Amino acid sequence: MAINLKKGGRINLTKEKPGLSSLLVGLGWDTNQFDTGFDFDLDASAFVCGSNGKCRNESDFVFYGNLEHESGAITHSGDNKVGGDGSDEGDEEEIQIDLSKMPPYVEKIAFTVTIYDAVRRRQNFGQVSNAYIRVVDRASGEELVRYDLGEDFSIETAVVAAEIYKSGGEWRFNAIGSGFQGGLAALCRRYGLEADSE
Question: Which of 98, 1, 81 shows the shortest CA–CA distance to 43?
Fold first, then answer.
């Protein structure tokens, strides 16, 4: 049975599931399709960080434009441009993690969601509901942890949903739920990458 976390909650994945090596990180949401005259296109991404909390370079940024980390340890399912209208069940986008292939320098993987072209479309996370992130053991199909982000956002166009990080040789999950203005560019700067502002 999945453990439901609140913002700031943490869980030791390695202790909860000894031998865990293959994970699926699923992200989902619903959107209000009628506020701005544009469809919503939300994008999940993963920032792969070293001990300094930053990416080494662009290859450590896994998103719709770079679907697989160079190590093969992290794979993105691809951009879902039509999900989130409440008509479908399940994850909108998924990221697969193979801990057995994870390079030694990786200390943290941050999972984020951004709204594509948010400024021009006049969209923000105040128009997004039922957002969540969950971690599934791919070997058994068991959902290990789930974090429902709630309705805490208003004008933000990017959210750091959660992170998986290594501590004492064990992998842990941290429910973050922090919103940012400035979309994907703001997140790239946070994790040490250069990006053009929207």
Answer: 81
- The contacts of residue 97 (CB under 8 Å, 6+ apart) are 22, 23, 24, 25, 73, 74, 109, 164
Q: Is 2 helix (H, G, I), strand (E, B) or coil?
A: coil
Helices (H), strands (E): how many in the chain? 3, 12
Picking from 197, 169, 160, the residue whose alpha carbon sits closest to that of residue 27 is: 160
Predicted confidence (pLDDT) per residue in 148-175, tens digit? 998 778 889 999 999 999 999 999 999 9
Give the C-alpha separation, 172 to 165, whole Å. 5
The number of residues in the chain equals 198
Q: Contact at 8 Å (CB) between 148 and 158?
A: no
**Phi, psi for 184 (deg, rounded to 5):** -60, -35
Q: Which residues of the chain form beta strands (DSSP E)?
A: 3-5, 10-12, 22-31, 42-49, 61-62, 74-76, 93-98, 108-115, 128-137, 142-148, 158-167, 170-180
pLDDT per position as a tens digit, 17-76 = 999 999 999 999 888 655 567 888 899 999 999 999 999 999 999 999 999 999 999 999
Rounded Cα distance between 136 and 138, Å, is 6
pTM: 0.91
